Amino acid sequence: MDIFKTVVGIALLAILFSLGKALFHLTSGKGNPDKMVRALTWRIGLSIGLLLLMLFAAHQGWISPHGVGR
User: Fold this and answer.
1) What's residue 70's pLDDT?
2) In the chain, domain spans
3) Helix (H) and strand (E) counts for the chain?
4) Do residues 54 and 63 lie in contact, with contact meaning Cβ atoms separated by under 8 Å?
5) Can you say how many angstroms the Cα of residue 70 is from the centroid of all Cα atoms in its chain?
6) What is the pLDDT of residue 7?
7) How far is residue 4's CA from residue 53's CA, in Å, rounded to a whole number?
8) pLDDT per residue over 2-58, tens digit each?
9) How many CB atoms within 10 Å of residue 70?
């Protein structure tokens, strides 16, 4: 299960990196919106991929909900 945690951690870092890259392109004076849109597209794709991975892992029994609030 350590490899699964590593994959999820790397995916989260990649999502944050992509979000930071989009912020940089938004605030830089160059005004190239194509790079910002590309970075945000990568972020959305990575987020959807991570969500699908988590759903697959829950379906396979690799992870389980912890039951907070029950």
Assistant:
1) 62
2) 16-22+31-58
3) 2, 0
4) yes
5) 28
6) 93
7) 10
8) 888 899 999 999 999 999 999 998 888 776 788 889 999 999 999 999 999 999 999
9) 5
HSE-up (13 A, CA, CB side) for residue 41: 6
Angle made by CA atoms 26, 27, 30, in degrees to the nearest 5: 80
In whole angstroms, how far apart are CA 57 and each of 5, 34, 43, 51, 63? Answer: 11, 34, 21, 10, 6
Q: How far apart are CA 31 and CA 24, in angstroms?
A: 11
One-letter amino acid identity for 26? L
Contact 11, 49 (CB under 8 A): yes
